[in-house]
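With this grant's support, we have settled on a layout for protein records. An illustrative entry appears below exactly as we store it:
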Amino acid sequence: MINNLPSGYFRDMQLIKEIFLPAFDEMNNIISMVGRMLSEVEINENILDDDKYSLIFSVEEVNRLVLSGMPFRDAYKKVGMEIENGNFKPDKTVHHTHEGSIGNLCNDRIELLKQNIIDQFDFDKIENAETKLLNSADRL
């Protein structure tokens, strides 16, 4: 976008302004829309109770059979045949413990990582500069 490092007001900077300024306006609009959308999100905590999601639990059933000693190939075939014949009745209780699973989301660790990142920013410096700028604008 820029031919050389500008040392004054060149055509390059005019061309960049034509692209960037509308992009920043659009980005502000997008951020505003995302904020509004997220404030309206309602989580359906019982969505998996709907029968159309019952096949999601087929993997859980295969895993349960394998953990009880059945070879994977046999467990996979058994569950597949139950599904094909319309006899599959899922056990919808899930007892995951691995990191990131429904039973162990690790939200506390994620929150700690987020806080560590936020703590690296020097917001006081920014707020002080903003206050000085606004105070000097008020005096004009």
The chain has a mean pLDDT of 86. Helices lie at 11-40, 58-67, 72-85, 107-119, 123-139. The chain has three domains: 1-41, 53-94, 100-140. DSSP finds five helices and no strands in the chain.
